[in-house]
Amino acid sequence: MVHAPLLMYPKKSHRKIVRIPSVSKELAEFFGIMIGDGGINNEWQANVTLNTDADADYVLFVSELMKKLFNVSPAIRPRLTRRATIVSLASTTIVDFLVKNGLSRGNKLMQGLRIPRWILAQKTYKIACVRGLVDTDGCLVLHKHKVTGGTYKNLYLSFSSGSPELLGQVAQIFIDLGLMPHLASNNREIYLYRLEDVQRYLRIIGTSNERIRRVYKKWRDG
After folding, report:
1. Exposure string (b/e) for 67-106, b if CB count within 10 Å is 16 or more?
2. Which residue ranges of the chain lie beneath pLDDT 50?
C-alpha cells in the first residue's frame, strides 16, 4: 500500500496532480463501492455506475468521497436512456494505484472478484468495505404479507454477487460480527432475515446510502 500524501508529475507527463491516500476506513469503503458498482475498463478511468433515481443522494456521497481521497473532482455523467449516472475519475495515476492495491482492469468477475487482503487484515476496514458493497450491490427490503387476516411487514437485507468467493467473504464478515447470513438457492445472494440481525447490521456497519435509510425509516415509522 502506498503512503504518500500527494503525488505530482512534471508537466510533460500530462498526468494530473492527485493525492494518493494512505490506508483508511474511507479508502476501504471506496474499494467496496468499486467492487460493487465500479469498473476499470482502460488505463486511465475508474467509474462507478449508480441508479439515477434511487441513488441520487448516494451519487453525491461517492463524488465527495472520491474528491476527499484523491484531491480530484470526478465527472458526473447521467445516462438518461438507461436511468444511470456514472461518477468517473480520469487519472492514470489513480487507476494504477487501485489496480496495485487489489482492483482489476476489465471484466472484474472473470478475473476473480474478491475483497483485497489489506482490507481483510483489519476489522474496521472490513466493516467499511462491506458498507460500500451493500450500499451498491445490496438492498434493504420491506416485505408485506398477510397472515390470518392481518398484514405484517418484515424487514430483511440482501447482498448479491456473481462471485462465490466474494459472497463467502462477506458471509464470513457477517458471522464474525455476530450476524447470521443465509445463502439463497441461486447461490448468488446472501440474506439477513432476522430483524435483530438487520438492526445489528445497521448499528455496527451502517449505511452511507439514503436509499437504505429510507426503507428502514419507512419500516420504523409504519
Report:
1. eebbbbebeeeeeeeeebbbbbbebbbbbebbeebbbbee
2. 1-13
Q: Is domain 11-122 annotated with CATH 3.10.28.10?
A: yes
**In 195-212, which positions are buried (b, 16+ CB within 10 angstroms) versus exposed (e)?**
eebbebbbeebbbbbbbb
Angstrom distance (rounded) from CA 39 to CA 140: 24
Grid coordinates representing 174?
A: 457477517
At 150 the pLDDT is 62
Segment 42-78, tens digit of pLDDT:
889 999 999 999 999 999 999 999 999 999 999 999 9
State whether the Cα torsion 72-78-82-84 is positive or negative. positive
What pLDDT shows up at residue 222?
Answer: 72
30 and 131 Cβ atoms separated by less than 8 Å: no
Q: How far apart are CA 103 and CA 116, in angstroms?
A: 8
Cell digits of residue 18: 492527485
Cα separation of 204 and 98, whole Å? Answer: 27
CA–CA distance, 93 with 49 (Å, rounded to integer): 21
CA dihedral of residues 107, 108, 112, 118 (deg, nearest 10)? 150
Domain ranges of the chain: 11-122, 133-221
pTM equals 0.89
* 147 CB-contact burial (10 Å; exposed 0-12 / middle 13-18 / buried 19+): exposed
Architecture of domain 133-221: Roll (3.10)
Are 23 and 118 in contact, with CB atoms under 8 Å apart? Answer: yes
